[in-house]
Write a structure and sequence with these properties.
- The chain is α+β, with helices and mostly antiparallel strands.
- The chain is 14% helix and 34% strand.
- It contains 11 helices and 47 strands.
- The longest helix has 20 residues.
- The chain starts with a helix and ends in a 6-residue tail after the last helix.
Length: 803
């Protein structure tokens, strides 16, 4: 009898290890109610701040919608029926509100069953342009703000495969990228091969990361050319005017004086190694009749070298100076785009050239580190920023463009130093309708908005920064118990602003404020979409790692929880590791304890309603010091991070150290795999859409720029796959069937599952049909929440398995 029972148990075990289809399940009602709660509308203001759009975001897709035809080409995914990006969220309803009177009209006249993928203000601020995705394409509709009655303004379909933005020429005319007309049917694949597919490399270094959805054959090339080809069309009140021959336009930009177009077109030969953004390209200047004035640059396939601070060896970042009628500026690397191959004192030079582009190029400025940006004012003043990823350092200088004068250092910051970041300079429109820096007449002061990071958390503010004294004077700062940000400056002299205010119990609402007069007027009155979370407490806690690094986490406790009466709770920790270059930066407090908790499908906060203590945004810093890269001691530091989090929640008396689960998405899933294979702290883990074998991403991952062959021990030690025989706890693996993220192929979860299964681990592998790296179908999301809830209930809250 004993042998028979053992035999039956073995057979049952085999059945459990096989894959199987499972009908969609639903989570407990409280979790489903939160997941399907209506979202707060998206808000947009016209430039005069006289009108406000309120856009209602669309709910989750259905699996049926995800099952619509989709082409995965050249690093992107498109819907061939509509010449647009696939899986593209939009808006289902929109209203327009008069800020002065408060009157609000619901926009009518848009086609039923369509979604708004973009809402664009006309330059005059009194009309709105809607790009609406219908069953067979994207069309444009326009409405006056005063009446909200939308009308179709063109029968031309937009080609939004490479972005469908509108380029304004004046208050009534604009340029679009349209689907060419009368172009015939799409290519049809020959089911019979006509030869083999061959790739070769003749002694060149082409080290590319593991990109997804690349071209694979000639048929893919034909599809790419067919669906990504567009035609520039001018839309006027009198009708449409075709401006150009068809081409694959990846970019168009109108000169400030509206006389010229800067265009970039993708050219053959296409690459099977990199996405379309690295394909051969031609950058040209075109006049408003569609004639090429000058060909600026032709580049071949560009594969930047591996390592920090590498870039294209060719001229890059072509753009119009916003303060000139038609002057181009661009950047040229002086080290062939690779600081490791050529040591230079000047890394980049910024050049400019005025129309008609016949005079020699003129140097604007140069940088010793890699060029980051220029914020223009005029010929007397601009801000130049250079930086290094290797050192995590950015420097911003005050410059006089083209003068040859020595730049004056304004900011010298670590990119990880949130406390020292003074914010973002305010910009205003100039005579060309382009945004330039706002300064006083002596160029001595900037108006700044900042997140206001501090040891107390983020407390946003607006300030004046004196460039001569290097002094920041705060004019207004949000106050507890609110988190309030300046989203627009209506009048910089009167300090009239629009803010977005929220608290732990109040969702984001918008206010018109006069800071000098200390007056405010509410512009919106959005209600709390989660009344079922009333009474849940939220606290940002601080604690230390064993080596002294300061850490934080946000702790949620169930409504009505009493530590003395209810005792210790099961715990769910959710985290995402981040790399830092210094202990000081890693120890800074991030985020705010006063924000409203918005919950999406990926949030762990659902489980506070199921009786868990939830720890969200658990800090897991990985710090490089003493010349070492952060990942050189990744496992040791990750374990210290986790031990500190377990200790603090236990010492608080609310968390049961014997019933703790951990989870994360993407790099957080990678973290989860490592924690369950290198510690015995957790009863269970949830790992969604992760990568677990770093030898499958041999040319870098996350912030790691060394290749596998340069640092094999790092790749191997960091891979939980290599330690599948050491799993402690029950692991739920989840992956989207069609993951599109660089490096997180579904095979990562498949192989990890097989390795764990081969070592008698308690593991479950769930594949969500048709989902990519982020999940979007209602059926899949509810099933995901069911799986996560069932896993936590069995292996954390009611843990009986003897791990």
């Amino acid at each position: 009898m004993k042998n028979i029972i053992s035999f039956l148990a073995a057979i049952f075990s085999c059945f459990l290890s096989f894959g199987q289809d499972m009908a969609y399940q639903r989570p407990p009602q409280i979790i489903e109610d939160i997941a399907l709660a209506p979202t707060t509308p998206r808000v947009s203001f016209n430039e005069n701040y006289t009108w406000m759009l309120q856009l209602q975001t669309s709910p989750y897709y259905s699996v049926g919608e995800l099952a619509q035809p989709e082409l995965r080409l050249a690093g992107t995914r498109i819907n061939p029926a509509t010449y647009s990006l696939s899986r593209q969220r939009g808006f289902l309803g929109v209203s327009i509100k008069n800020i002065k009177t408060g009157n609000e009209v619901v926009v009518s006249g848009l086609p039923e069953e369509s979604i708004i993928i973009n809402a664009i203000w006309y330059p005059d601020g009194n009309r709105v342009l809607f790009a609406c995705k219908e069953s067979n394409g994207i069309y444009l509709y326009s409405t006056l703000c005063a009446d909200g009655k939308a009308k179709k303004i063109s029968n031309r379909k937009l080609n939004a495969t490479l972005g469908g933005s509108v380029s304004w020429l004046n208050d009534t005319c604009f340029i679009i990228k349209a689907v060419p007309e009368n172009r015939g049917n799409a290519p049809i694949k020959n089911p019979i091969p006509v030869g083999s597919m061959v790739q070769e490399n003749l002694g060149k270094e082409v080290a590319a990361r593991t990109y997804q959805d690349l071209l694979k054959n000639k048929y893919d090339e034909d599809l790419f050319e067919y669906y990504f080809t567009s035609q520039l069309v001018k839309i006027t009140p009198q009708g449409e005017i075709e401006m150009s021959t068809p081409g694959i336009y990846s970019r168009i930009s109108v000169s400030p004086d509206k006389s010229l177009l800067l265009t970039t077109t993708i050219e053959k030969p296409y690459s099977y190694t990199v996405p379309y953004s690295n394909f051969p390209a031609t950058t040209s200047i075109m006049d408003m009749q569609g004639e090429i004035v000058k060909e600026i640059l032709k580049t071949p396939v560009v594969v930047p070298a591996m390592g920090y601070d590498t870039t294209s060896p060719f001229p890059r970042n072509y753009a119009w100076r916003p303060d000139k009628p038609a002057t181009l500026y661009w950047v040229e690397a002086q080290d062939n785009g690779n600081p490791r191959s050529k040591k230079v004192e000047i890394a980049d030079i910024v050049y400019q050239q005025e129309a008609p582009f016949t005079s020699p190029k003129q140097e604007v400025c140069h940088t010793s580190m890699r060029f980051r940006s220029i914020q223009w004012r005029d010929d007397n003043f601009a801000l130049l920023t250079e930086g290094s990823r290797a050192t995590r350092n950015n420097k911003t200088y005050r410059i006089k463009p083209c003068s040859g004068d020595a730049p004056q250092l304004v900011f010298d910051l670590s990119t990880d130093d949130l406390y020292g970041n003074p914010g973002i300079p305010y910009t205003v429109k100039n005579q060309y309708g382009k945004y330039v820096l706002y300064t006083d007449k002596n160029y001595s002061e900037l108006l700044m908005t900042s997140e206001g990071a501090s040891p107390e958390g983020n407390m946003p503010y607006i300030s004046r920064y004196n460039l001569n004294k290097k002094k920041n004077t705060v004019l207004w700062r949000c106050k507890a118990p609110y988190y309030e940000t300046v989203v627009a400056i209506v009048d910089p002299v009167k300090l009239q602003v629009i803010t977005a205010r929220q608290s732990q119990t109040e969702p984001v609402n918008f206010y018109l404020k006069e800071l000098k007069k200390r007056k405010e007027m509410a512009l919106t009155h959005f209600a709390n979409p989660y009344p079922m979370l009333e009474g849940v407490t939220k606290e940002k806690i601080r604690y230390k790692r064993a080596d002294g690094i300061d850490l934080t986490a946000t702790v949620y406790l169930p409504a009505g929880y009493d530590k003395e009466k209810d005792g210790r709770l099961p715990v769910l920790m959710w985290a995402y590791p981040r790399e830092y270059r210094s202990v000081k930066d890693a120890s800074q407090v991030r985020g705010s304890q006063y924000t409203f908790t918005n919950i999406n499908y990926g949030s762990p906060v659902f489980w506070v309603t199921r009786g868990y203590c939830v720890m969200e945004n658990v800090e897991m810093p990985i710090v490089g010091s003493d010349g070492k890269e952060p990942n050189d001691t990744y496992i040791e530091q990750l374990v210290m991070d986790a031990e500190a989090a377990v200790k603090v929640i236990s010492d608080m008396g609310v968390g049961d150290p014997n019933r703790i689960g951990v989870g994360g998405h993407s790099y957080g899933a990678f973290m989860t795999g490592n924690l369950l294979t290198h510690t015995k702290l957790f009863k269970a883990g949830i790992a969604r859409s992760g990568a677990y074998n770093r030898t499958l991403t041999p040319f870098g991952f996350q912030a790691e720029t060394r290749t596998y062959w340069e640092a094999p021990e790092v790749y191997n030690v960091m891979s939980p796959f290599m330690y599948a025989d050491r799993l402690s706890g029950a692991l739920l693996l989840v992956h989207g069937e069609l993951d599109n993220n660089t490096g997180t192929f579904p095979i990562q979860s498949e192989r990890f599952y097989q390795a764990l299964k081969g070592h008698k681990a308690t593991v479950r592998y769930v594949v969500l049909p048709l989902e990519s790296h982020s999940y979007s179908a209602k059926e899949n999301i509810l099933h995901l929440l069911y799986e996560e809830d069932a896993w936590l209930e069995k292996y954390v809250k009611n843990a009986e398995y003897p791990f």
